[in-house]
What we know:
Elements: H1 7-37, E1 49-53, E2 56-59, E3 65-66, H2 68-72, E4 82-85, E5 88-91, H3 111-138, H4 157-166, H5 182-191, E6 198-199, H6 211-226, E7 230-235, E8 238-243, H7 254-258
Antiparallel strand pairs: 1-2, 2-3, 4-5, 6-8, 7-8
Helix pairs in contact: 5-6
Residues 42, 44-45, 47, 59, 61-62, 64 line the site of one zinc ion.
Amino acid sequence: MAPALDRSGLLTRTFQMSEAVERFVGAARAFFYEVALSGRQCPVCGGRLAMSGESRCRCETCGQESDPTCAFQRCPACGGSPRLRVRRYECEICGMDMPSRFVFDGLVFDVEYFRQKMEEHRQRTAGRMERVREMLAASRSPAIAAGPLDLANHPGLLDALDALVDGSPVALQIEPRSRFDLKAYQAHVQANLGTLGRDFDEIPALRSDDRFDRVWRFIAVIFLAHEGRVRVVQDGEEIMVMQRETDREGQDISGELEEADGVEGLVG
Length: 268
Ligand SMILES: [Zn+2]
Ligand SMILES: [Zn+2]
């Protein structure tokens, strides 16, 4: 019976095994490429070809790089040449799928396609940032033009100032501004979300349709989100406010909006 292995012995054996498998795969790939290229010559100078990657080869004489699938394979149905479409080859005449005979165990990428996708993605992100910047700039209030001071305009202010100087306090008769009732705004926002949620701009005003009401609705949303009672997802200029229901697992769409492009995962 073979002696029992301890943990480190087992690990050493595992690494040795994995190295042996890697060596074997390397040798198998070299053999596969050799067979695939046998009898093939550089289309430019007739020199010897060597594979430099999946469906990439290089002439050992003139250094010309080429795609052997496009150079040597033909469509079995119509004789057309293959062309690379994103990640697979197809016949450029009849459109039939043409698995490459020059790909061992990897994938072939249309590098130009992915470069273009990344560029479009970058431009979209930059455009989104620009729109947000413009939106913020437009929402800035204009500079305040300070007119001449008119103390008499505020009832009781002059009396109060006199009293301050005299040292005899007088109650000020200034009308208080309407106060922000956070609880009322929070209840109002939650009552208007519906089951799925709502675009922030569609939540109706609570008191009046002025800027303060909008600011207070927004503060209420931020507090609700902070307390974990709603979820806020921003997508471009839209702010979606959603009821947070802890028992609805697996329906979190916030992550999906972020990944909507799906390009990052493919190109490092
Ligand atoms: Zn050559
Ligand atoms: Zn064809």
